[in-house]
Structure formats: structure tokens, C-alpha cells
Amino acid sequence: MGDMSELHEYRVWAPTAARMRVVAGDETVEMSQGEGGWWHALASAGDYGFQIDDDDAVRPDPRSLRQPNGVHERSRAWDASAHGWQDAGWTGRPIAGGVLYELHLGTFTSEGTLDAAAERLDHLRSIGVTHVELLPVNGFNGTHNWGYDGVAWFAVHEGYGGPDAYQRFVDAAHAAGLAVVQDVVYNHLGPSGNYLPLYGPYLSSEGRSTWGDHVNLAEPAVRRYILDNVRYWFETMHVDALRLDAVHALVDQSDLHILEEMAIETAALSAHLGRPLELIAESDLNDPKLITPREAGGYGLDGQWSDDFHHGVHVALTRETEGYYADFEPIAALAKALERGFFHDGTYSSFRGRDHGHPIDTERSLSWRLVVSAQNHDQIGNRARGDRTTEVLDESQLLCAALLLYGGPFTPMLFQGEEWAASTPFQFFTSHPEPELGKATAEGRLEEFEQMGWDPAVVPDPQDPQTFERSKLDWAELQGEGHARVLEGYRQLAALRAELEALTDPHYARNLVEADEQTRVLRLTRRAGMADAVEIVLNLGTEPQTVPVSRRDLRFQTHPDVTLADALTLPPGAGALLA
């Protein structure tokens, strides 16, 4: 078997197995069963897998750190400590006062790799980004995918460069002063390459979401699997925050909810590592319990998405009112989202057919805990054509959305290319090698779109390679005149956000929102302690408007025809910031 120094210790949780073997290289070694359903053995390092019971099929490791030949093949031992980290001086960056930037590695650059993405970090800094958020990178079947079909939670997709490239990317981000947010999916597993049920009760026999079976949170070892993955990104990969996908699909009847347990372990690890580590939930529950500190009876997560802001902005600018946009038609809906965080806070949701949400305690809660966007991968990619608002909004209207993002009370999140009005769509794409799976995915999407009233005839085939290629950003667009003007607007707003204290003040009570349904003028006044107030005024109507203002210094305008004399004059679809 060779020298002992060349041996690797293999461990795997398989509580229902009567026999386990590890196959490493050319050798097969019987494993010994220890406590709690854990098996272990010493065998040579390299490509390996496990044989369960008397099945001779070699299965990948549930905790595999590398899948060099895809999620169906053998795992490969990987030494994370071989990387010489360069970020010893990095002290972290909390999301409070920050700007997030969501990107998909496969489409962010033409190369579609971590190393290529690292070359664009200076561009992100120029628009005020503090946190680069990567859509899921863990192993999935096929060559390209959004990432939400992942099955190897600890492995970085080889097409992006694998785990070595991931370490280089984090180092590069930290060197550029940027924190890294990793999007992780703990609520379901992808439909291809998921061998976890062969090993043990990873999935629940009770209930499923539209994406698949629920994860079995009643099993302590499965909870540990999730918590160890949280720790892996923070400790081994030096990540600064995790975005937790669709936490409303984490069905947990335990006394200690898995989200609170994550918060407890993350806080402890943060204290140990000496830098801020944060958890941001994607949730459609509109439940402030997620972001209420544990001392006040909440789960203690740091932030959560608020789609109500997106819906309010989208409807105000596009006038689109199909499906879940219907309730956001009046300008008052956007005003309420700006003032109270959630629009649906116990109110009736016509899309859901029931009351929805809970109010935020605006006296005590801090507004930066809500992460908001004018565009994101879901709201673009889950449209029938994956079309951006760039198709229907002009430059001034796009900058109105940016003005509400950078100037509003919440933590802004941009989506790749938004900052230059990218014309490329972001469509839903898959590369399932199994024809029946590709067919089922495409048919499932058509059913979803019927509910939104969208034309199924325009939905691109997710399995068509061109759907993926069309979604890649065209960086040459930055040289185009209109694109450059929008980008310059984002850069100006980033500078103002850094300069004016009122724009990052987290107290709801210091914001005053006024909306006129007749003229469709919205005014947001923001204050911060002893600092001067900032006034943001938008004309969301179809006629020019002249508006009295109390501030006299016009610091930003979305349109060249905005003027300030005795009053502020705004053309339709234009906005201004005054200080």
C-alpha cells in the first residue's frame, strides 16, 4: 500500500449501510464503522469514491472538495492549505453602508472563469461596490447552469477554475478592498448527480418544494452537514458573507431553527477569526424575525432580501402590472416600501390570494438589513425572455432606479451589467446531459409563465447552448455613448453615497416619503443626525413637473433638462438629488 505518509484518511457518514468500501486509485479498502454512522479508512490519496453495501458502483464523496470529471465521477482529494493566502491584512467589511454586486461567473466574462472575473474588480470599485456576490459555484451536472442545480456543496465547479481558482479570486477581491459574498443553496439539491440519499436520510420524506425534496433538518447529521458547509466557506475559503437561497423552503420543526443555529455558529467563528462574517437570507416571507437580533427573540441573521422594493420600482418605471406586480401599481406602494421596508406587512396579496408578511419594527430595526435591487438574477432570468428593463426604459429612467438604490435607505445590490445598461439578456439556461431532464425543465418553466400571463411562445429553450451564450455580458458596450453615460451616472451616485452621511443613515424615522398619485411625483427626504438633509425627487409621470424644494444644491440629475431655479423642474421619467 506504500508509505504511510502517502495515505489519506477517508471518512463518510452512511448510517444505514451494512458495509462501506473506499476505492482510491487502483485499490479498494474495506472501511470500519465508528460512532454515529461514520465510516473511516486509510487509503492512498488521489481520485476516490465509495461503494455502498454490496453495490460495486463507485459514488462520489458527499463532502467532496473537487469533482474534476463531473458530479457523477470520482472525487479528488484537495489540500486547501497548499494555497499561500495573501490577505493577512484583510480585516473584513460589514454590509452596513455597503453596495453589493451580484454576478454569475459563467456569463460575467467571455471566459466564464474566476480568474477572468478577478480582472474586472477595479471596475466594480469604480461604481462603489464593496461586496462582490457570486451566484452558486458548487458542483452541478453539465457545463453551464445558473448554479441552483448544485449537488456537490463543498466543490467549486471545475469550469470556473475549481477550488484553487476560488482561493485566488478571494485573495484578489480582498486585495482590491472588496468583500466576497457566496450564494449557497441549502433548501434542495439538483436533479442530477445527487447521490446523498444512497448514503443516508439527507432528504425529507415529508413535503417538497417546486425544486425538489426538502432537506431533512430533523436529522442532526444533516444539520451538521449544512453547518460544516457554512464554516467551510468562511474558514477555508476566507469568504465574508453567505447569501442563503430561498430560506422559506427550509422546513424546520426543531426548537432551534437551522437559521438561528447558523447565526450562532457564524458569530462564534467571527469572534475567533477576528473579522465580520455575515448571513443574508433570501426569503419571500416578509418576516422581520429573520433579521431581528437573537437577544430580541429573532434568528439573528444580518440581512435579508426585500423584493417589495424591486416590485415597487419596477412597476413605477415600467407600468407593468401582471402577476405579482399587480399590487404595486400605485406610487403609494413604492412609498410604503421606502418608508417601512415591506409593502406587504400583513396586507392582502392578490397574487397569493391571502394576507402576507409582517411589519418591521421601524423604531428599532436598522434599514441596511434589507438588501434591495432594481434588477437581479431572479427578476430578470425568471421573465419569459430573460429581458432587462433596459429594453423598455430610457437612460434617465434607468438612472432613476439607480438613484433610489444608491440614495434609498437600504443596502443596494446591483446585477452584472446593470451599471452600463447592458443590452444582453440574462436567460434561464441549463446543460443537463439527460434529454428527459432537459425536457422536464423546459416544460416546468412554461407552466410557471402561464401564471404570470406571459407568452410561452417567446420562452427560450434552457437547453439550447445559444441561450447561455446570449446571456454573456458584452464588455465592449462600455465604449458606446449611451452605455457610458449610464455608467458615469452610477459612478457619480457612488461618490455621493460615500460623501453624504444621510444616504447611509440606517434609521427609518429619519426618512420622509411623499407621493402624489395624480402627478406621480415621489419625494424622499433623508436626514442623518447633525448632517444636512438630502432630498431625492422623481417624476414618474408622463408630463413635466415643477416641484418646490427646500434644498438648493443640485448634486445629481438623471436627465440634462432637469433645472433648479425657484423650484425644481423635472421632465417625465427624470429624477434629481439635492443637498
Automatic annotation (TrEMBL):
InterPro entries, per the entry: GH, GH13_cat_dom, Ig-like_fold, Ig_E-set, Trehalose_TreZ, Trehalose_TreZ_E-set_sf
Binding site for substrate: 243-248, 307-311, 377-382
GO cellular component terms, semicolon-separated: cytoplasm
Superkingdom assignment: Bacteria
Subcellular location: Cytoplasm
Ranges of residues in domain Glycosyl hydrolase family 13 catalytic: 79-445
Keywords: Carbohydrate metabolism, Cytoplasm, Glycosidase, Hydrolase
Active-site annotation: 245, 282
EC number: 3.2.1.141
Membrane spanning residue stretches: none
Site keyed Transition state stabilizer: positions: 378
Swiss-Prot/TrEMBL GO biological process terms: trehalose biosynthetic process
Signal sequence bounds: none
Pathway: Glycan biosynthesis; trehalose biosynthesis
Keyword Cytoplasm listed: yes
Pfam short name (any one): Alpha-amylase
Catalysed reactions listed for this entry: hydrolysis of (1->4)-alpha-D-glucosidic linkage in 4-alpha-D-[(1->4)-alpha-D-glucanosyl]n trehalose to yield trehalose and (1->4)-alpha-D-glucan
Enzyme class: hydrolase
A GO term for molecular function: 4-alpha-D-(1->4)-alpha-D-glucanotrehalose trehalohydrolase activity
Family according to the record: Belongs to the glycosyl hydrolase 13 family.
Name of the protein this chain belongs to: Malto-oligosyltrehalose trehalohydrolase
Source species of the chain: Agrococcus jenensis
